[in-house]
Structures are given as structure tokens and as C-alpha cells.
């Protein structure tokens, strides 16, 4: 908070007055699994960019084909897993091994350990899947301190991961199949529906070229990166260059 106060004191005051559960991951009542946003609509919006201009029927079919491909490929990936957890979770733990091997582990009781790294001491409780650094509880994956305690006792580190990272859950997620529609000739359509004639909605065409890009909202990240800040080489003031500078300089 001290760093944030140096950047913007007003934002710091606003956050301190707000409920920390709304903006601090350490105070969130549930596990966020290191996911900082739940705005899945933006992820889908960027994924279907190639199909957004299609008419409704081809659009729905494009979405169906996309989900069908997702289920097929990810089911193959889940089946080919060699570990009891997903490849991503395994890679996360592997990245912590080098640090874990440099830690000193002392037993407190059967499943509680004191883990020392440099001058800092952490308490790991393997019955609670917790560490005093809080990373273990927040991510559902053993932190480096927990891995040090687990390896010191020759336990299976995969057993201490959250079940949501397990291979079995991954297989269950993509257990179903997304099938295509049958041919139109094979449709079993009711007679009263066959007689219906659906007309397009009435609307007034607006002047100008149709807008293709969605307006950016709060929390959107610009796709083209950050705008470079312009600094004048003459006066050192922001937002203009030397050519357009109106400030005079002292001549010595």
C-alpha cells in the first residue's frame, strides 16, 4: 500500500475505505486460482472474431464447430497426461523445485514443518494444505516451501494439489461430445412449424459505415500497447516536442 500511496494517494484512500474482499486476493473468501478476472465474455469475444460478421445461422454453426474442436483436442490432451495433475499444474510445481531444494526443513510434528529460506522462516501444515506465505492456500498448488517439506518426507506432491487440477477432473470436463446437426432432409419438423414464415426484423438502416469494433469498457486492455509519452527536448515538458515548443531557453 505504501508503493500505491506514492503513485496515487486518492486511489489508496479509496481502496482502504472499500471492502478488501473486493480487490485483494488475500482477503477473497474463496480460491481464485490466480485468476484475477472472471470476464469470460471478452475471451470468447476475441476467440470468435473471425465469425462475428456472419449471419445468425452460420454464426451458430461456427460456434458449434469451434466447441466441437475444443472438446476433441482437449480430451486427447487429458487422455495423454502422464501425471495425476494437468500439465500446467505440473509445470508450475517443476518451476519451484530449484528454489525448494535450497531450503532447510525442520519437523515440528508429524505433518507440520518449519521451512527456512535465507533469513525467513515459514510454517507448512500438510494436513491443512497451508503455508504461512499464503500462496499454497490461494493457488491450490504447493508453494516452494510446501514442496520442500513434501520432498523431505518423500511424499507425493501431486496429492497435495487441489482436485480441480487433477487429471480425472480434466477428463470429466471434456467427457461429453458436441455433435453436428443432422442433414436438413432428416429433420423431424412439426406441420404447424412448417407453415410458419419467419420474416427478418424491421429496422432502420443508420447512416454511415457499420461499426465493427466494440467500444472499450472499464478494465479493457488496449490491443496496440501503451501510447508512448512525448517529451520536449527543449523544455523537458511532456505532451509536445521540440519543434512545437513555445518555451524559451536560456542562452549562455
TrEMBL record:
SWIM-type domain mapped to chain residues: 122-154
Listed GO MF terms: zinc ion binding
Record region (Disordered): 201-225
Keywords, sorted A to Z: Metal-binding, Zinc, Zinc-finger
Pfam family, one: SWIM
PANTHER family, sorted: POLYPROTEIN, PUTATIVE-RELATED, PROTEIN FAR1-RELATED SEQUENCE 5-LIKE
Entry protein name: SWIM-type domain-containing protein
Organism: Cannabis sativa
Amino acid at each position: 500500500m505504501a508503493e500505491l500511496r506514492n503513485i496515487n494517494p486518492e486511489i489508496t484512500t479509496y481502496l482502504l475505505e472499500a471492502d478488501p474482499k473486493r480487490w485483494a486476493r488475500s482477503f477473497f473468501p474463496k480460491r481464485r486460482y490466480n485468476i484475477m478476472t472472471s470476464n469470460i465474455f471478452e475471451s470468447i469475444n476475441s476467440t470468435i472474431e473471425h465469425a462475428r460478421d456472419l449471419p445468425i445461422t452460420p454464426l451458430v454453426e461456427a460456434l458449434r464447430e469451434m466447441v466441437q474442436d475444443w472438446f476433441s483436442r482437449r480430451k486427447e490432451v487429458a487422455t495423454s497426461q502422464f501425471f495425476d495433475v494437468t500439465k500446467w499444474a505440473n509445470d508450475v510445481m517443476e518451476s519451484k523445485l530449484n528454489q525448494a531444494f535450497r531450503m532447510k526443513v525442520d519437523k515440528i510434528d508429524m505433518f507440520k514443518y518449519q521451512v527456512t529460506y535465507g533469513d525467513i522462516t515459514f510454517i507448512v501444515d500438510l494436513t491443512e494444505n497451508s503455508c504461512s506465505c499464503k500462496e499454497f492456500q490461494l493457488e491450490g498448488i504447493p508453494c516452494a516451501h510446501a514442496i520442500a517439506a513434501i520432498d523431505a518426507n518423500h511424499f507425493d506432491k501431486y496429492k497435495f494439489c487441489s482436485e480441480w487440477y487433477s487429471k480425472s477432473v480434466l477428463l470429466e470436463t471434456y467427457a461429453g461430445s458436441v455433435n453436428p446437426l443432422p442433414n436438413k432432409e432428416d429433420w423431424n419438423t412439426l406441420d404447424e412449424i412448417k407453415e410458419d414464415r419467419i420474416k427478418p426484423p424491421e429496422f432502420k438502416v443508420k447512416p454511415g459505415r457499420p461499426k465493427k469494433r466494440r467500444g472499450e469498457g472499464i478494465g479493457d486492455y488496449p490491443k496496440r500497447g501503451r501510447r508512448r509519452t512525448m517529451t520536449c527536448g527543449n523544455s523537458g515538458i511532456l505532451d509536445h516536442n521540440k519543434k512545437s515548443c513555445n518555451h524559451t531557453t536560456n542562452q549562455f
